[in-house]
């Protein structure tokens, strides 16, 4: 090992944590110091502690030796390493009982100081794949973290998740698996700051709970205007349903309730706002489509300036086609991933358990076999007769199967409501060409530099 730590052979980047005298504690202290500094500056840190399953035992020896060559070690050190790692004999001891010696074909020595060092070398280039997060690495202890102002914490959580997905794909490609049950995420900051993120939802929950208890555990729901009674069923808000359930058989604490509400708020916010932006952009690029969508609004409202109702929304068929076509070209969630827990065969290829599959919804939606002229914005793609001709999974902006989007109907209603308001009151045109918009997939598909619209109030002749 002398060769590795001699002058001139300083291990690069994160490998420094593995130098003599450094340990997991050193790495943890380093993170703690960074968090403390961030807190002093009023920042919050989102942190993930990753745990690799069978880390030391999964190392591919050839790959490790190839990586060691890139560290410019002397030939002697390399050939010693080669002979040391290949066909190693290993025995395990527990309470002074020793197992038999077994020949090991993979992995690095456990229990010796070399184990952590070699493992660090093996996974060191994880850092090159990170887009947003800082990290600390000591052997198989990896921490990803990101500091942010309290009001942008949700954005940081998205970024952290994005890097986390990259790390798990990277790890799977190198024969390593992340142990999801031990991988933890936490948000650290001054109590006052973190609380301010959650308090508003918590107080809504407490208020609503008090009302519910006051009503003998039955939420009155709504008074029964047209909007609140859909079809024959009287609808209750999601929070009310959760509250009723939690006062019945399934006990949920206020914090658990808040976590459920947070999931809905966060999943439902960025996705729909991105969806609306893309629809506005498309309508601004295609004046003939905007005019047709406006005519539909005129038919529905007959010149009235009243607020929109559920019945009105159900009549906006063309606007729905516009939204669906925008989500086809610009799906708010451009890709999704699945960790295989058993082997499967797809198209003659066997995919082993432990792999992460990524489905590129963006590409699926531009398949010319399913959508002739796939890059053209054409809301008629969602006429019933065209839908009937397509494969049922040719269009999956809300995913499909048991974990699909629970908010998809709500999302369409929300988008319709906002776009209807825009169409009734304004005209607009988009100032940027499709080829000039740079897309970024930060879990949610966004235009890197926003979208520029020129908006004029309806009735104003300037447009
Ligand atoms: C245009 C808007 C939206 C799009 C494109 C969208 C898309 C998606 C997709 C693709 C998934 C599946 C992720 C996966 O398979 O890994 C998903 C899951 C989910 N969505 Fe949405 N979503 C939207 C709006 C909403 C809204 C408004 C809500 C809530 C009010 C919501 C709540 C959820 C929840 C809770 C899940 C997780 C479901 C589960 O894991 O069982 N989404 N969404």
SSE order and pairing:
Elements: H1 2-5, H2 24-40, E1 44-53, H3 61-69, H4 75-85, E2 88-90, E3 93-94, E4 97-98, E5 102-104, H5 114-123, H6 126-129, E6 134-138, E7 141-148, H7 153-173, E8 177-178, E9 184-188, H8 191-214, E10 229-230, E11 233-234, H9 238-247, H10 254-285, H11 287-301, H12 310-315, H13 317-329, E12 335-339, E13 344-346, E14 349-351, E15 356-360, H14 361-364, H15 384-389, H16 408-425, E16 426-430, E17 439-442, E18 444-447, E19 453-457
Antiparallel strand pairs: 1-7, 1-8, 1-9, 2-5, 3-4, 6-7, 10-11, 12-15, 13-14, 16-19, 17-18
Helix pairs in contact: 3-4, 3-5, 8-9, 8-10, 10-13, 10-16, 11-13
Bound molecules: protoporphyrin IX containing FE.
**SS-derived structural category:** alpha+beta
- Strand percentage lies at 15-25%
Helix percent reads 40-55%
Calculate the terminal CA-CA distance, rounded to whole Å. Answer: 73 Å
Count the beta strands: 19
Radius of gyration: 28 Å
The distinct bound ligands, ions and cofactors come out as:
protoporphyrin IX containing FE
Largest sheet: 5 strands, antiparallel
Shape: elongated
Residue ranges: pLDDT <50 for 5 or more in a row? 1-21, 221-232
Mean pLDDT: 80
Count of alpha/pi helices: 16
């Amino acid at each position: 090992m002398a060769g590795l730590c001699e002058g001139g052979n300083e291990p690069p980047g994160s490998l420094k944590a593995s130098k003599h005298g450094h340990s997991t504690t050193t790495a943890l202290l380093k993170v703690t110091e960074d968090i403390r500094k961030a807190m002093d500056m009023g920042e919050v840190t989102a942190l993930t502690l990753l745990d690799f399953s069978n880390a030391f035992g999964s190392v591919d020896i050839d790959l490790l030796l190839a990586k060691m060559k890139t560290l410019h070690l002397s030939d002697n050190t390399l050939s010693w390493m080669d002979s040391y790692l290949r066909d190693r004999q290993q025995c395990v001891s527990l309470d002074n009982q020793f197992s038999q010696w077994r020949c090991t074909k993979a992995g690095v020595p456990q229990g010796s100081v070399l184990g952590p060092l070699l493992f660090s070398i093996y996974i060191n280039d994880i850092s090159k794949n990170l887009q947003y997060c800082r990290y600390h690495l000591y052997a198989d202890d990896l921490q990803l973290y990101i500091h942010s102002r309290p009001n942008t914490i949700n954005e940081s959580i998205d970024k952290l998740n994005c890097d986390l997905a990259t790390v798990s794909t990277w790890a799977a490609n190198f024969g390593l698996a992340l142990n999801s049950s031990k991988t933890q995420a936490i948000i650290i900051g001054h109590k006052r700051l973190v609380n301010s993120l959650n308090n508003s939802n918590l107080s809504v929950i407490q208020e609503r709970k008090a009302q519910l208890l006051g009503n003998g555990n039955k939420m009155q729901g709504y008074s029964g205007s047209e909007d609140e009674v859909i079809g024959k069923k009287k609808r209750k808000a999601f929070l009310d349903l959760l509250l009723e359930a939690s006062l019945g058989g399934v006990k949920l604490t206020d914090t658990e309730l808040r976590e459920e509400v947070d999931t809905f708020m966060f999943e439902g916010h960025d996705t729909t706002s991105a969806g609306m932006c893309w629809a506005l952009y498309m309508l601004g690029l295609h004046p003939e489509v905007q005019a047709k969508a406006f005519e539909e609004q005129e038919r529905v409202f007959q010149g009235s300036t009243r607020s929109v109702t559920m019945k009105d929304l159900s009549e906006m068929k063309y606007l729905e086609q516009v939204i669906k076509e925008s989500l086809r070209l610009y799906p708010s969630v451009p890709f999704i991933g699945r960790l295989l827990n058993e082997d499967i065969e797809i198209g003659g290829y066997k995919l082993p358990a432990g792999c992460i599959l990524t489905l590129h919804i963006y590409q699926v939606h531009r398949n010319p076999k399913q959508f002739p002229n796939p890059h053209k914005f054409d809301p008629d793609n969602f006429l019933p007769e065209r839908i009937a001709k397509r494969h049922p999974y040719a269009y999956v902006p809300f995913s499909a199967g048991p974990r699909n989007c629970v908010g998809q109907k709500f999302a369409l209603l929300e988008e319709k409501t906002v776009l209807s308001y825009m169409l009734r009151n304004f005209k607009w045109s988009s100032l940027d060409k499709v080829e000039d918009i740079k897309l970024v997939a930060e879990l949610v598909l966004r235009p890197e530099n926003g979208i520029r619209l020129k908006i004029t109030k309806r009735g104003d002749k300037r447009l």
